[in-house]
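One-letter codes give the sequence; the fold follows as C-alpha cells. An example follows:
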Amino acid sequence: MVVAIAAVGLGWAAWSRLGDRVRGAADLVLHPESITVEGVAPWVRADLKSEALRDASLDAGIPLDDPELVRRLARAFAMHPWVREVVSVTATHPAAADVVVRCREPVAMVAVPGGLLAVDAEAVVLPSDDFTAETAAEYPRITGVPSGPQGAVGFPWGDPLVEEGSAVAAAVGPDWKSLGLIGCRPAGGGSPTARTWELVDDKGRTILFGAAPGHEAAGEPTAATKIARLRALPAGASADLTKTPQRADEPRSIPAG
C-alpha cells in the first residue's frame, strides 16, 4: 500500500513538472495551421478560418485531449457571419482537424444611406468588407428600405420588407442580368399584409412581380409561374406577372361603336 501511494505521488509530481511541456508538444496541441476548412465559397474573400479561430480565442492552439475540442471548433465556425452551417468537425492524432462548412450566399444588395449592404435569401446581413464596388454591382439592388439592420453582421436584418425583397431577389436569381434588370422595390401603396414588388431596369422600365414568394394572395400565381412569364417577355417589355399573358392568336375584344 505504501509503495503504491508513493508511486502515485511521484507520478503526480512528475506530471506537475512535465505536464505543460507534454501538453505543448506539437503533436498534442491543435494549432491553426493544422486545421483545414472545406466548403468556403468563392465569394468569401476573408480568411474565414483565421477570423473564426481568433474571434473564439482559439488561435493560440487547443490541447488535443480537451474533451470539448470538437464542440469548441464547431461553435467557433458556426459564429462566423459567412457560415450558414457547420456540416462536420473531425479531429485526429497527430494534432489535426478538418472542418466542413456551408456558406451563406449573397443574393442582393440593400441600398442604405452611404452605400450598400449585402444580404442572403433569408435577409441575413453579410460582411461588407468582402465586396468591392465592382463585385457589389454584380448583384441586384433592393431599394425603398427605410430601416437599417437591427443586429450585427451575420444576423437577420430584422425588417419584413428586407425579408420579402431578399426572397424576390433569390427567386429571380441568375435571370437578373440576362433580362437586363438591376433590382426590385416595393410598389407604391399597399399594406404590409398585401405588399407588392416591382422589378426595374436602368432605363425606367418596371415589371410588376406581385407579392413576395410565400406572401401571395389567394389566386395569385406562384413565384415559379411568375419567373416563367418573366423569361418569356420580349426584350425591354413591361408586364404584370400576376396576370396571365394574352396569346398572340387570341381574339381581342372590339370596342363598342
